[in-house]
Write a structure and sequence with these properties.
CATH class of the domain at 42-197: Alpha Beta
Shape: elongated
CATH superfamily of the domain at 42-197: Ribonuclease H-like superfamily/Ribonuclease H
Strand content: 15-25%
Radius of gyration: 29 Å
CATH topology of the domain at 42-197: Nucleotidyltransferase, domain 5
């Protein structure tokens, strides 16, 4: 049957089929939080690459937003069913080593919006901050880090298999944290800056300590004068 005739009969019969509009995710923007210490916010994101065998892999980046320290680079194949549990397993290990973060900032990818991930955050009382769709710079710290990671590691390395990729990526992560100064950290390495921020502040001098210091200084001066008189 001619499509024109179908359209004519359709219009004469007054038929009307409503087209379903595509549902779009809407998230309200949140102002960037002013960070004053480590573990206040961790930033998460994924980056893609390909092995020498043609197999695609994904790398989960976990960054401390205050100290700019790369906490983990988890390399795994891109099986969505496996990756959901892979994300929480990696975060569990980091929480056991470094303590629980106050919040996680991430995009709206399926691994980071799944029920498994949401329940994991609720059970551990971690605030989950999703950025607005199409606004990657709301997670700008990890985006900047991933630019360096791709230019200096992924684009210049050849990974023959998954285990070699994990080894080289981990070596680059250690170099980034331990040997590379960061301009926004006063040209300190992220590891040194994090250690300095975690150190307890020096206690102010007490009155007793000041009097004791002055007393010791007075005694030293007296001994010095006595020695000169004896000579």
């Amino acid at each position: 049957m001619n499509h024109k005739r179908v359209w004519r009969v359709y219009r004469e019969a007054g038929l009307c089929v409503k087209r379903k509009k595509r549902k779009r995710l809407v998230r309200a923007g949140r102002p960037a939080r002013v960070l004053t210490a480590a573990n206040q916010e961790w930033a998460l994101d994924f980056v893609h690459d390909v092995l020498g065998t043609g197999q695609r892999v994904r790398v989960l980046s976990v960054l401390d937003a205050y100290a700019r320290e790369c906490l983990a680079l988890e390399v795994d194949t891109s099986f969505a069913r496996q990756l959901t549990g892979r994300v929480t397993r990696g975060l569990e290990r980091l929480v056991a080593e470094r303590g629980r973060p106050e919040s996680l900032r991430c995009d709206n990818g399926p691994e980071l919006t799944s029920r498994h991930f949401l329940v994991w955050c609720v059970e551990r009382k971690i605030q989950l901050v999703h950025i607005e769709p199409g606004r990657p710079m709301q997670n700008g710290r990890v985006e900047s880090f991933q630019g360096k990671f791709r230019d200096e590691c992924l684009n210049v390395s050849w990974f023959r298999n998954l285990w070699e990729a994990r080894e080289k990526v981990e070596a680059w992560r250690r170099e980034y944290n331990e040997a590379r100064p960061h301009s926004s950290l006063g040209y300190q390495t992220p590891e040194a800056f994090a250690a300095e921020a975690a150190a307890p502040p020096a206690s102010p001098p007490t009155l007793a300590g000041i009097l004791k210091t002055e007393q010791n200084g007075a005694l030293s001066s007296t001994n010095f004068v006595s020695a000169i008189v004896r000579t």
